[in-house]
Amino acid sequence: MFNTSLIEISRSALRQNIEFIRKQIGENVRFCSVVKGNAYGHGIESYVPLAESYGVNYFGVFSSDEALRVFQVKNTDADIVVMGMIEGDELKWAIENEIEFFVFDIERLNDAISFSKEVGKKAKIHIEVETGMNRTGWSWSERVELAEVIKDNIEYIGLYGLCTHFAGAESLSNMPRVKQQIENFEKWKSFFQDENFAFRYIHTACSAAMLRYPEAHGNMVRVGILQYGLWPNGETFVEFRAKNPEVENLPKRLLTWKSTIMQLKHVPANEYIGYGNSYYTPKNTIIGVVPVGYGHGFSRSLSNLGRVLVSGHRVSVIGLVNMNALVINLNDVPDVKKGDEVILIGKQGDMDVSIGSFSDLSHQLNYESITRLDQAIPRQIVE
Ligand SMILES: *Cc1c(COP(=O)(O)O)cnc(C)c1O
C-alpha cells in the first residue's frame, strides 16, 4: 500500500455507539450524524457508508464541499444538512439536489428563494436562531422581517428545521448560559407557533447537550464526537458515569492509528537525537524511526513527550517530531525488529494509547487532534 501509516475504523464499535445514542434519545427523536471535519478525521468516504449500514440516514456537515463528498459517497437516500458555509452556485446545487441547509441571515434567505424559483424546487431550510452563542443565527430583533419574508415566499421554502447551537454544553461552568439559551429558544418557538409556522425538526443538541439536557432534544439531535466513541470532555464522561452507573456498552473508540518501524539502529551514549539538542542519550540506545510526523497529524508538541506502543510496550518519543518522521526509544522492547508495528493511537496487547492522552499531552482538544489526521492516510474498516 502506498502509505506510511493506516487508520482503522471499527465496525463493531460504531454499532455499539449508535445503539448507545439511540437509547439516549428514544424512538421519536431523529439522529443526525455530524460528519464535518472529514467525519472527525475518520474519513467521510469510509464513515458515511458504514454509518448507513447501521441505519443512519441523516448527515450534518459544515460546508458545501463536505456536502458534495457525502452526496457522492452515500448509498441510500440519506438526507444531508449543511450547518455552515454555502453560497452562490453551491446553494443552487443544494436546492437542485434537495440538500438542506441552515439559514441565518437575510442574504442567504433571499438567495435561497431566487434559486428555488430558478430551479423549480423548494429550498429545504433550517432557520438557525441566535440564543446566546453569538456566532451564526438570526437576531431576535429580526424576527418580524424574517417571518414576513418566509410567509411571502412559502411556495419556495420547505421549513425543515428551527435550531440553535449551545455555547459549551460540555462544561458545568457554562450551565447558566446554556439554560438561558434554552429559555431564549423557547421564546423563538412560541413566536413561530403564534405565526403558525410548522417546522419539521426542532433541534439544538450536540453530544454533550444530548447527554446533559434531555429537555433540549426536540425531535432531532446533531451528534458528532460521541458516535466516534469519544466524549466531549472528561467532565461529560464523569457526570454520565456518576448518574448512570448501571449503563453497559458505553461508547467505544472507533479509531486505531498505526505505522511501522522504518529503521532501527544503535546510538551510543552521549549523542543528540535528530534535529537540535532536545534529547541526549544517557546510555547506548536502540532507536526506531517511524515514518509519521506533524505533517500527518502527530503534533510537534509531542516531541520528547508522546508515547506509542511497540510489541505491547509503551515507549517514548525522543527528540523533536519532524514533518514526516519521529524517533522512539526501544531499549525496553525485547527482540524488536525493523518493520514491527507501531500503534500511535489504539490498543496493542493490554496497552492503550487513548486519544485523550494523545490530546492532553499536546494541549489539543480530542476534537482537534483527530480532525488533524491527514486526509491522505488510508482509512480501513475492520471488525
Ligand atoms: C459540530 C456541531 C455539532 C456536533 O457537536 P459534537 O460536540 O461533536 O456532538 C452539532 N451542531 C453543530 C451546529 C455543530 O457545529
How would you describe this structure to a colleague?
The protein is an alpha/beta fold and 383 residues long. The mean pLDDT is 97. The radius of gyration is 24 Å and the shape is elongated. The strands form two sheets. Strands 1, 10, 11, 12, 13, 14, 15, 16, 17 and 18 form a ten-stranded mixed beta sheet that branches. An eight-stranded parallel barrel has the order 2-3-4-5-6-7-8-9. It contains twelve helices and 18 strands. Strand 6 (123-128), helix 7 and strand 7 form a beta-alpha-beta unit. The protein starts with a strand and ends with a strand. It binds pyridoxal-5'-phosphate. Residues 34, 36, 83, 165, 206-208, 222-225, 232 line the site of pyridoxal-5'-phosphate. Pyridoxal-5'-phosphate binds next to helix 9 and strand 9.
Please describe the biggest sheet, giving its number of strands, its sense, and whether it closes into a barrel: 10 strands, mixed
Helical fraction: 25-40%
**What distance lies between the first and last C-alpha atoms, to the nearest angstrom?**
20 Å
- Count of helical regions: 12
Series of secondary-structure elements, N-terminal to C-terminal: EHEHHEHEHEHEHEHEHEHEEEEEEEEHHE
- Which ligands does the model contain, each kind named once? pyridoxal-5'-phosphate
| Overall mean pLDDT | 97
Low-pLDDT segments, ≥5 res: none
E-strand count: 18
Radius of gyration computed on alpha carbons = 24 Å
Structural class: alpha/beta
Q: Overall 3D geometry?
A: elongated
Strand fraction equals 15-25%
